[in-house]
């Protein structure tokens, strides 16, 4: 039977940095590595809110990317 072994967790934070010439929002992303694999959604939310409070631009989205090795 195959198993999925988590090897890495990263967060991608997207910030709205303004608007383009058409009036559509422009975004900038920052990826943060070395995230604790066992971090809960609440812990990640609190951490990203703390990071966002240090930034000039508003935080729009947070995406958690977990990477797995599939072994059989």
TrEMBL record:
<dbReference type="Pfam" id="PF07872">
    <property type="entry name" value="DUF1659"/>
</dbReference>
<protein>
    <recommendedName>
        <fullName>DUF1659 domain-containing protein</fullName>
    </recommendedName>
</protein>
<feature type="domain" description="DUF1659">
    <location>
        <begin position="4"/>
        <end position="71"/>
    </location>
</feature>
<dbReference type="InterPro" id="IPR012454">
    <property type="entry name" value="DUF1659"/>
</dbReference>
């Amino acid at each position: 039977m195959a198993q999925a072994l988590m090897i890495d967790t990263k967060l991608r934070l997207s910030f709205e940095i303004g608007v383009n010439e058409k009036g559509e929002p422009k975004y900038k992303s920052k990826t943060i590595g070395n995230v604790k694999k066992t971090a809960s959604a609440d812990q990640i939310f609190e951490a990203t809110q703390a990071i966002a409070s240090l930034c000039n631009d508003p935080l729009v989205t947070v995406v958690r990317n977990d990477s797995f090795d599939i072994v059989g």
